Amino acid sequence: MPSVSPAAAYAVVVDFPVYPRLFPEIKAARVLATEGKRVRAEFRGNIVLPFRYVLDLDCDAETLTVDWRYVEGEVVKSSEGSWRFSAEGNGARVEYMVAMEIAAPVPGFLLRKITDGLITLSLPAMFAAVEREALARRKP
Asked: Over the stretch 35-63, which tens digit does the pLDDT of each residue have?
């Protein structure tokens, strides 16, 4: 993200309630609990099938990192991953890692479409949405 600071990108990523506005596949997102740096959040969406999952996210504003673990869900059966933000040039370097397991009563080709929609195909759009939001939040 050449024009966004690491802290600005991090601030967008940990603002879970705005996810439905940023990411078209997410229809609802809400924080269920917060304890220290850990946030439990629920996400609902639709890519071919409706899905729901709850994650525990460890958010560290000092190191600009987010690590998450799956708690429960429907269609999404496992998810863990992380965000890492660091300075690069005048902007932010973003490292995103995710492992996800989808289980749905659909043919394999549809299951691949769901997985691709949640991970592979949405990554460029996801990064662009984070950058747009961070830029929009800048004070004039």
From this structure: 999 999 999 998 777 889 999 999 999 99
